[in-house]
Amino acid sequence: MKVKAAVVAEKSGNFTISEVELAEPRDDEVLVRIVGVGVCHTDLVCRDALYPVRFPAVFGHEGAGVVERVGSRVTKVQPGDHVVLTFRSCGQCPACRRGDPTHCANIFACNFGGTRGDGSCTIHHHDQPLFANFFNQSSFGTHALASEANTVKVRKDVPLELLGPLGCGIQTGAGAVINSLKPAAGSSIAVFGCGSVGLAAVMAARAVGCTTIIAVDLLSTRLDLARELGATDTLSPAAGNVVEEIHRLTGSGVDYSLDCTGIPTVLRQAVESLTVPGLCGLIGAAPLGTEVTLDMNSIMFGRKLMGIIEGDSVPDLFIPKLVELYRQGRLPLEKIVTFYTLDNVQSAVRDSEEGRVIKAVLRP
């Protein structure tokens, strides 16, 4: 079928709306009319070819929409269902078989391969195959083709256009707290970087009962919003040494920290802000090959550093829990989302990169 999609023709190129040909759904696939799709840092990392991709390409991996058609073997959803599209795992490797899809041995191929598993292309433009099937969806368009495996059914009494970011960014930030760090009520946490992922972590920390929540960012507008969403303290690196200030505020350092920036110097600060013992999570995406240096003594005495992918979540279970947190007012997505039309995708990208919005969501 012919649909509209945002196509990037070359490395670091603009997103241009074009009419493309979307493949028919196979037996295990789902055709979704996109209602809202978030602009995520990973889309822009791949646009700039910091991960190995090919061009022309169609990105987008935080899609939410309405099911229009399903393949003959699909049983999880049916036409008319509201769904959130998320990452894909292979379902066959040891990690997947033990119910741990974020550590899938084939997660890179499943999400960044650009084609179906058999090498076939899902999107063509003037008979030219495009790099698509991004996160098994390529949802920067009016429609997306996903598999049953990465399609999550959600309830219909919540605003569907808000829910796309639950498929990646919000799932990552909130899941890093709830599923990975698992802080006890009354514990302390510092969140470095207050974009959508970091603010999701702040909201989740408040929801699970952290009593000291320190938000760190250079932008005062983001720090103000972090306070509104649950941060008890806010710090700007421009105002002084944040590690020293965190230790001053807490007496001995925080129990948990999260780096949501992917910047090596910030990750080191996150580790050094910990008490002993303490746990730091890394969820910021950095270019392949990025290295970090640590004083070995900073981790010798019990501090720990862990990498976190997609909030260590099982999407079919965790995304509905996030929807319920939203319904209860504990995950106020409307406070971080700014809507754009699909035709204004380039403005959404520019505003995201320049920090004018927290989470841009495209509404086709």
> What is the tally of helical segments?
11
Radius of gyration: 20 Å
- Contiguous low-pLDDT stretches (5 residues minimum) are none
Share of residues in helices: 25-40%
Can you characterise this structure?
With 364 residues, this protein is α/β, with parallel strands linked by helices. The chain is 27% helix and 26% strand. It folds into two domains: 2-167 and 332-363, Medium-chain alcohol dehydrogenases, catalytic domain (Quinone Oxidoreductase, Chain A, domain 1, Alpha-Beta Complex), CATH 3.90.180; 173-308, NAD(P)-binding Rossmann-like Domain (Rossmann fold), CATH 3.40.50. The chain contains eleven helices and 18 strands. Strands 3, 5, 6, 9, 10, 17 and 18 form a seven-stranded mixed beta sheet that branches. A hairpin with a 6-residue loop joins strand 1 and strand 2 (15-22). Helix 4 runs parallel beside helix 5.
Helix-strand blueprint:
Layout: E1 2-8, E2 15-22, E3 29-38, H1 41-47, E4 57-58, E5 63-70, E6 82-85, H2 94-97, H3 107-112, E7 123-125, E8 128-129, E9 143-147, E10 151-154, H4 169-181, E11 188-192, H5 196-208, E12 212-216, H6 220-229, E13 233-235, H7 242-250, E14 254-259, H8 264-272, E15 274-282, H9 297-300, E16 304-307, H10 315-327, E17 337-341, H11 345-353, E18 359-363
Helix pairs in contact: 4-5
